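=== Per-residue structure ===
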Amino acid sequence: MTWQVLVHGPLTRLDERVSAAVVDSVPRRLSELASDLGNLTVALPVLAAAMAYAVWHGRRTDALYAGLAMAAVPLLVIPLKEWTARPGPLEPWAEGYYPSGHTATAMVAYVGAAYLVSHRLVPAAAVLTAVTGTGLVLRGYHWPLDVLASLCLGFLILGAGGIAAVSSRCTRRSSG
């Protein structure tokens, strides 16, 4: 996807046609409300509460990994935005829309929180993430590829944190 964005390839042109067809296809108030789920002021308190819950239940390492995963979001998203310098759907003069930081924030915060509290909440976290990304596209804040790239990035961030958490649990069990 990144390569297609950089060279303005056929996938990017399809992305632009899809965006033009769906922007403002739902009431703006609804798409704005959905996209706001990716704001730090909404997503970060959810993750912080789940981290506090995990610490309270003796899972400090898991809470640490969730916090580090969230810290990784801007460390990865901002350089990609700078590198690709992709203009926005409604603001062709502005740059830095690829990948979507709101989508990555929502995914890492909500899925991370779900893993910390109860794995049964992961489907709800996935729905919140999907609603966020859909709202961003329908409102015209992001292209669909911006959102898809952030989902891929979120899987990488969460996967790296998950591997670290699993290995720390295995180490604790074998040493105990």
DSSP finds eight helices and no strands in the chain. The mean pLDDT is 90. The chain has one domain: 27-175.
